[in-house]
């Protein structure tokens, strides 16, 4: 399938490692130029950038905290100077803590909301006006299925990301006339080898998945590329789960 991404400038946040890195490499393999955002993982970001350049595309490294509007504006300035204006965004950056609500300190819950909710508000407010004036753009936000189903151990990030889903739906209505599509990709548990569960706990978890395995980072990239492609030009305001059937929402 030709995703039509050749020459597009795509910003992928949190792309030094994990799922974000897989998406960045997959988009680069399709000929997209990559704005590779990271916050702390500089060495991994440099390594990912080298791999991306091997595809013969441009890559610009940008660093910042998406919860801080000032950082996001600086990211845009750097990208505009070094890569050109951004066509599409995949917001993959996130921060979620797994614990009971009653074990939280107030500054911890604020931080989670700042990243998982205000992070996408900051990105949309900063980057979307260029998409609107070009009459073309795509904005994808990645969340966990807990944002749709609830999860007692992800209580704050789930709530913040549920808000992010709602924000993106409303934005999809606002910018539809400008040919900008906004969608959410919602994930089940993706095993990247660092889950830290015992074998017994992992077995229990896997049993909850109709497809009888956890996800892999590679399971996510195809849907993201599709949503960035021309074939998804009439898809907006949607939430699409990649979750091995763990939850089946109508
Ligand atoms: N893995 C799963 O099972 C799973 C399930 C559901 C949802 N998700 C979501 O899918 C996305 C990717 O997951 P992942 O497991 O590959 O990676 P992850 O470790 O959860 O997060 C991805 C990146 O987000 C960046 N980040 C964190 N706080 C940030 C901030 N304030 N500003 C900017 N960047 C920030 C980090 O970049 P640096 O390392 O450079 O600091 C990190 O590498 C995340 O949003 C995650 O919550 C994952």
Characterization of this structure:
This protein starts with 8 loop residues before the first strand and ends in an 8-residue tail after the last strand. The radius of gyration is 17 Å and the shape is globular. The relative contact order is 0.14. A 7-stranded parallel β-sheet has the order 3-2-1-4-5-6-7, sandwiched between helices. It has 8 helices and 7 strands. With 250 residues, the chain is an alpha/beta fold. The protein has one domain: 3-Layer(aba) Sandwich (Rossmann fold), CATH 3.40.50.720. NADP nicotinamide-adenine-dinucleotide phosphate binds next to α1 and β5.
CATH architecture: 3-Layer(aba) Sandwich
Radius of gyration: 17 Å
CATH superfamily: NAD(P)-binding Rossmann-like Domain
CATH T-level topology: Rossmann fold
Total of domains: 1
Shape: globular
Strand content: 15-25%
Strand order of the largest sheet: 3-2-1-4-5-6-7
Span of the ends, CA to CA: 28 Å
Give the overall average pLDDT: 97
Low-pLDDT windows of residues: none
The chain-level structural class is: alpha/beta
Total strands: the figure is: 7
Question: CATH first level: which class?
Answer: Alpha Beta
InterPro entries: NAD(P)-bd_dom_sf, SDR, SDR_fam
Family: Belongs to the short-chain dehydrogenases/reductases (SDR) family.
Pfam family, one: adh_short_C2
Organism: Metabacillus rhizolycopersici
Write the layout of secondary structure elements.
Blueprint: E1 9-12, H1 18-29, E2 33-38, H2 42-53, E3 59-63, H3 69-82, E4 88-91, H4 106-134, E5 137-144, H5 146-149, H6 155-175, E6 180-187, H7 199-207, H8 217-228, E7 239-242
Parallel strand pairs: 1-2, 1-4, 2-3, 4-5, 5-6, 6-7
Helix pairs in contact: 1-2, 1-8, 3-4, 4-6
């Amino acid at each position: 399938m030709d995703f039509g991404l050749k020459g597009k400038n795509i910003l992928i946040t949190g792309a030094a490692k994990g799922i974000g890195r897989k998406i960045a490499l997959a988009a680069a393999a399709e000929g997209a130029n990559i704005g590779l955002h990271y916050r702390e993982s500089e060495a991994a970001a440099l390594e990912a950038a080298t791999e991306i350049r091997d595809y013969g595309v441009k890559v610009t490294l940008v660093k910042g905290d998406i919860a801080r509007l000032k950082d996001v504006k600086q990211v845009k300035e750097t990208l505009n100077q070094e890569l050109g204006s951004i066509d599409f965004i995949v917001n993959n950056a996130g921060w979620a803590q797994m614990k009971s609500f009653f074990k939280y300190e107030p500054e911890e819950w604020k931080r989670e909301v700042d990243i998982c909710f205000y992070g996408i508000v900051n990105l949309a407010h900063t980057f979307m006006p260029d998409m609107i004036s070009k009459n073309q753009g795509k904005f994808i936000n990645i969340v966990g299925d807990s944002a749709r189903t609830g999860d007692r151990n992800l209580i704050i990030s789930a709530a913040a990301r549920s808000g992010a889903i709602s924000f993106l739906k409303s934005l999809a209505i606002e910018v539809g006339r400008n040919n900008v599509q906004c969608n959410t990709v919602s994930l089940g548990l993706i095993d990247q080898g660092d889950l830290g569960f015992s074998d017994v706990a992992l077995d229990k978890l896997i049993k909850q998945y109709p497809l009888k395995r956890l996800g892999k980072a590679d399971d996510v990239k195809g849907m993201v590329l599709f949503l960035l492609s021309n074939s998804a030009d009439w898809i907006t305001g949607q939430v699409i789960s990649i979750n091995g059937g763990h939850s089946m929402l109508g």
